[in-house]
Amino acid sequence: YSPFIPLMDKIAGYKVVNLPPSDNASADLGLIYANNEICYPATLVVGDIIKALKSKTYNPDDTAVAITQTGGQCRATNYLSLIKRALAHAGYGHIPVIAITSPGSLYNEQPGFTLDWKKLVLPAFYGLMFADSLARLYYGTVSRAKHKPDAELLKNKYISRAITLIEKKNYRSLSSLLREAVDDFNYLEVITEDIPTVGIVGEIYIKYNAFGQYNIINWLIENRVEVVVPPLFEFMIQAFINGRVMKNSHIANSSGMNLVSRFLEWESEHHIRNYEKLLSRFRFYRPVVPIRITSEYASEVVSLMNQYGEGWLIPGEIASFARQNIIDIICMQPFGCIANHIVGKGIEKKMKEKYPHLNLLSLDFDQGTSKVNLLNRLHFLIQNQENFVH
Fold this sequence. Notes:
Layout: H1 4-12, H2 24-33, H3 40-54, E1 65-68, H4 79-89, E2 97-100, H5 117-142, H6 148-167, H7 173-187, E3 197-202, H8 204-208, H9 216-222, E4 226-228, H10 232-248, H11 256-279, H12 291-299, H13 313-323, E5 328-334, H14 338-346, H15 348-354, E6 359-365, H16 371-382
Parallel strand pairs: 1-2, 3-4, 3-5, 5-6
Helix pairs in contact: 1-5, 2-3, 3-4, 5-6, 5-7, 6-7, 7-11, 10-11, 12-13
């Protein structure tokens, strides 16, 4: 997903550089300039920023720090103040911190910085849709590929080609590109025997960030376990459900934005169906449950008013997996992540009552987590499946 971000900001008229993936230096600097009582992703983000500035790659007088924000109830909403405090302590207090967020969701006005969302809606939408689709092709193939680097090369090839099309605003051609990607991944040489399958749910940063999860997804892939990761798009479009629930519960007022939201939801569903039709030609295709159905599954376990962090999306995704016979599921979360510990662990008993064959493994991550302990627990989960390849 990350390669598409600088393109979005280039379209908006800014030069944006993705920071390199986190590493041990990020964690160490995060502990120095933040503390170990905040969530692990915040520690890594603060460490990434300080590490980049200390590398002297960027001129502090000509640089701003930007971070995407949802403005939710979890500690992520404190990232702006955490980063600003860390910058001040490290001697970079004059560097502005910018929140990249939808209009009205989080107040952090910065003179000289504005986003024209009308320019960004389409490229962001199509970029995310294509990245999700490509991820499904990649994860479905790479664990089975006889030569895994071939799957990696294909993935990078189609990321690059998609970026070129989006930069040219040639969104219609993305469908043809996805069709071509399906053919290429179908052509890749794979093993014929069955392999185990594991579903991934949890906190958004840990779920999609390799270092943050101790490279566990890569470990599963190396051991020929198919990893099923929900589309990132689900996290975004749960807002359609949340808004409707808030309105029906008389917590939010009806407004003209409700009509806009309904129109955007309908448009999203239309494009999702088109992409699903293209993906259905993939030999290892697994359908994605529509977000409204996912919310209905979740409502059987928790109230849909649980909207903090991933909220009801965690039980909804677990139920969607279980109904597709993906019964081995890992819930990844930063240690002490309030939203995910309350939801992720709080629903375990009820989820197992509804789906008795479910194997749900909750894994916590922070700077002091033992990788050996994590791998031991993963072995116990996977070895319940007869076809585990050591």
